[in-house]
Amino acid sequence: MADVITTEYRLASEPALRAFAAAALEKVGVSSEDAAIVADVLVAADLRGIESHGVARLEPYYVKRIQAGRLNPRPAVTTVRETPTSILVDAGNGLGHPAGKRTMDAVLAKAAEHGAAFGAVRNSNHFGIAGYYAMQALERDMIGIASTNSVRFAAPTFGRDVMLGTNPLAFAIPANREPAFVLDFATTTVPKGKLEVYQRRGTPLKPGWAIDREGNETLDPQVALTGALLPLGGYGVDNGGHKGFGLGLLVEILCGVLAGGAFGNDLPLPDDGPLPGRISHFFAAFTIGGFRDPLQFKADMDTELRAFKDSAKAPGQDRIYVAGEIEHEKTLFNRAHGVPVHAKVWNGLQSMAADLGLPFEIAKR
Amino acid sequence: MADVITTEYRLASEPALRAFAAAALEKVGVSSEDAAIVADVLVAADLRGIESHGVARLEPYYVKRIQAGRLNPRPAVTTVRETPTSILVDAGNGLGHPAGKRTMDAVLAKAAEHGAAFGAVRNSNHFGIAGYYAMQALERDMIGIASTNSVRFAAPTFGRDVMLGTNPLAFAIPANREPAFVLDFATTTVPKGKLEVYQRRGTPLKPGWAIDREGNETLDPQVALTGALLPLGGYGVDNGGHKGFGLGLLVEILCGVLAGGAFGNDLPLPDDGPLPGRISHFFAAFTIGGFRDPLQFKADMDTELRAFKDSAKAPGQDRIYVAGEIEHEKTLFNRAHGVPVHAKVWNGLQSMAADLGLPFEIAKR
């Protein structure tokens, strides 16, 4: 399952990459505090091997949207409603990462005091990997949950309109010696980027991934890109497509509807023009100590995760991975060897640096 | 998607069926309070069209297990740990339904006071449909979550050992005029009962459902029944099988590990002999009022659910169903016309009534 790091990749220094990403955002008006948070979330994605959500998105998703006036670099972030165990934040059409991290911080503080708390953010923008926010709970011996809606790419079961985002859900649960359980997944079968990869390669899609504009399943990547993604479980109900659709709609409700943000037909399509931040996020945390001694729980987590990892393998497989394990190993490897950045992304960052008048010194030495 | 009610089904009176189920449980020593809860959960499943979890299970899962001494009809249920926002209950190897319902009641009371709460139950048994407990939140304008682990039927991604239950997750979110959103799904692609149906029919399975004993995908129902179910998303990772595995393991952790119950290799296999209740459950609830005015939220839920239902249909489809909608319509229909009970199940109940010395007057008049 691990991606092979070929010569198409160059290795960046982790602190230099983080500093560069932050500097670029500061150049377009983001406060240094906010820029540092965004940079940390993006580099965390690259460290975890989730390139699609890393520094590759710095320019197109954040810098350019700020430059185009679509996203406010200095938003007025306000708390709309707050109780001892809940908080609803309006991100003021700012970057999703600082609003997300700070709201999860507030949720964790409330949960530390009261045992459990929930949070939501509206009027926000793309916040990177959902897992980052769920993982904020780990060091506090809590279980963390994070989610976000997104621009629309997917159709409901039995439908053909593009109605749902890839709507990821993330859960983070600490262990002791084993890496934490971190489940962070899109509720569509595959992300849109996968269709693009198959289009470039000229290879057919797998069944269960996408439909054409008329709502028929298609294996043609070009046709699929003008159609819609399918929910986890695929076409129709035979393989549980209605479960994936249900999960996607759950995320829409917990984010858009609960936060009082955009949802349903008001959620933007990918090709909609400049739109103010219509993305919403959802967070939750609760203390393990409310149920069991955290040390005992984490020791049991080790036993549990090992039971699965040590179980018999399917033919041709030599490992069973539990959620978050690959990303944890990649993080350790990339921390030691440098953060792999695809050559195209590297060159893009370099030319953005030139445009912004920034030094570009990210190479691992 | 609706099941056709043929002459294979007979119609029972809802109150008579509930009273009969309760009487049968009382006959084997269950208290009248507990018996009434079990009966309500079972009949709710039949009303919702989830026959597999209804009165069909009354004798094999509950009455016979009590008679065999596997399940304690008068358990000592104890609260192991409790905080203002959490509760951990030991069900004393009793029926799962009363322990589940009362723990969710406690979670809802805590959430009503503090805004959010979580609960878990260990040393329990099969509790019927998870959706029942999540739906307890609806009338209180809360969002409810319920889950349970189960005996093992499924293999992890890249594995071949039977390691995971069907591990359902349920979420209930209220709406106003629209039926509530109730997502209640097994984290395997299909339930084990589906393999048995295909075996009886002699038709091949679909890809993505099951593996043989060696861990290869199989379409042969007989072979699959000696193998394992696959997680939602199917074989390997191409269609997101690792996501379904992650969800199944999440449920195992939130139930078995968090509750301090059985998990991993200690969780029973279906053919294990008489085992004390090693099943655990998980519950959560939080108030909508912590985020928004509940009336406004529920009006927005109507808009949201209608947006999906009114969106364009795939070829050959005339409806898009949101989670819980079919079950809601079946409940209304069955309430009006009688609860459909399969002739085989009906006859089984009748012979159990004779064995227990109970009158059998469940027919709808």
From TrEMBL, chains A, B:
The keyword Oxidoreductase applies. GO terms for molecular function: oxidoreductase activity. InterPro entries: Mal/L-sulf/L-lact_DH-like_ah (IPR043144), Mal/L-sulf/L-lact_DH-like_NADP (IPR043143), Mal/L-sulfo/L-lacto_DH-like_sf (IPR036111), Malate/L-lactate_DH-like (IPR003767). The keyword Oxidoreductase applies. SUPFAM superfamilies: L-sulfolactate dehydrogenase-like. Gene3D superfamilies: 1.10.1530.10, Hypothetical oxidoreductase yiak, domain 2. Keywords: Oxidoreductase. It comes from the Bacteria. Signal peptide: none annotated. PANTHER family: MALATE DEHYDROGENASE, OXIDOREDUCTASE-RELATED. Belongs to the LDH2/MDH2 oxidoreductase family. This is Malate dehydrogenase. It comes from Vulcanimicrobium alpinum.
